[in-house]
Design a protein that fits this description.
- There is one protein chain.
- It contains twelve helices and 16 strands.
- It starts with 6 loop residues before the first helix and ends with a helix.
- It is α/β, with parallel strands linked by helices and 351 residues long.
- The protein folds into two domains: 250 residues, Rossmann fold; 87 residues, Alpha-Beta Plaits.
Length: 351
């Protein structure tokens, strides 16, 4: 199925085999509309990986629960891919445990990975295959019945917006299009947990934007997405929480707003994109006068930077009030520049 039989090409094939078929697992649940809905979780417990004298990962303790998107942030060589590979048992820890839904990945691999979809590093698909053919082979390996196979393939291809290309040869695809099909392969079986290793690496700006939009669309479907990256703006744009790692050690894990507030005197910063220039009077006398706002300023004619006190509840109220002003709000997100400041402070502190 996969054209590249090097370690990179074999990663996805290995994950596919270990992800079949799905079984129920006794993991934590949350109540929703009177029904118990499984709460997906991943946990690293004293997880470490040593290569001779080199420590790739050192006593990582990290527990993530619930439907959300968590950015796993760190510089190249910090231990992100090593961690994801241990969560899929592609490499074995020197010590510690990787748990998925409370199940040890190494000792109960098939059961632990039954509810997981993965995209680790950069797998390749045979150029002569179509997405339908490639995904059909993966579905069969995963144990998806012939009755369900075609329906699932069409569903996941629609999720990555590749319907019109489903019967075209992959060899004619751009790198971004291939990446979308690889993401589709991770969605087969409707996994509750999705592990992505730097999914936009090597893509052009358009391809990066398309993949990020796809990841955003996956967040609203009771899925836990754990996504490694070293691109700060990407994490700010896509993720709800962030775990930072450097030199194999976890530095911080929290919501984006809490992480930035912790290192900015308790304040949070959001960036507001507008469809048209805002009047200075509205900015200075209305937005700047909101009770939670510390400072409001323009970064250019159509973008605002707002510093405020409070958490997500205050941020939600602030967005609601700004929208009511009818000033053409088209985007509202945590400031990537603030995350960058925090990141650089934390990373430099570990050197």
């Amino acid at each position: 199925m996969w054209g590249n039989l090097s370690s990179r090409g074999s990663v996805c094939a290995h994950s596919i085999i270990e992800n079949s078929p799905r079984v129920s697992t006794p993991f934590k649940q949350e109540l929703c509309y009177g029904f118990r809905i499984p709460m997906p979780s991943i946990e690293a417990f004293n997880l470490s990986k040593q290569y001779g004298a080199f420590c790739a990962l050192s006593d990582l303790n990290l527990k993530i629960e619930g439907a959300k998107c968590v950015g796993f942030l760190g510089p190249n060589g910090s231990g992100k891919t090593t961690t994801l590979k241990m969560f899929t048992d592609l490499i074995r820890p020197t010590k510690g445990q990787a748990l998925i839904n409370g199940i040890n990945v190494h000792t109960e691999k098939k059961k632990a990975l039954a509810s997981v979809g993965t995209l680790i590093e950069t797998p390749e698909i045979y150029a002569s295959l179509t997405p339908r053919e490639a995904l059909s082979m993966i579905s069969e390996i995963r144990g998806i019945s012939a009755v369900e196979r075609m329906k699932q393939i069409e569903t996941v291809v629609a999720e990555v917006h590749m319907e019109e290309w489903i019967d075209k040869r992959v060899g004619k695809f751009s790198k971004g299009m291939k990446q979308r099909i690889c993401i589709a392969s991770a969605l087969l079986g409707n996994p509750s947990i999705i592990l992505l290793d730097e999914p936009t690496t090597g893509l052009d700006p358009r391809g990066m934007s398309e993949v990020r939009d796809i990841i955003k669309s996956l967040k609203g479907k009771n899925r836990l997405i754990f996504m490694s990256s070293h691109i700060l703006s990407e994490v700010s744009d896509v993720c709800d929480e962030v775990a930072m790692i450097d030199h194999g050690k976890l530095i911080v894990y929290d919501t984006l707003s809490n992480v930035t507030a912790r290192f900015s005197g308790g304040n949070n910063v959001v960036e507001v994109g507008l469809a048209r220039p805002v009047d200075n009077e509205i900015l200075n006398q209305t937005i700047a006068a909101f009770p939670s706002v510390v400072k409001a300023e323009k970064t250019d004619d159509k973008n605002l930077k707002i510093i405020f006190k409070g958490g997500l509840d205050v941020q939600e109220l602030l967005l609601s009030e700004i929208v009511k002003l009818n000033i053409g709000v088209v985007s509202f997100k945590a400031s990537s520049s603030e995350l960058e400041d925090v990141y650089l402070k934390l990373i430099s502190a570990t050197l």
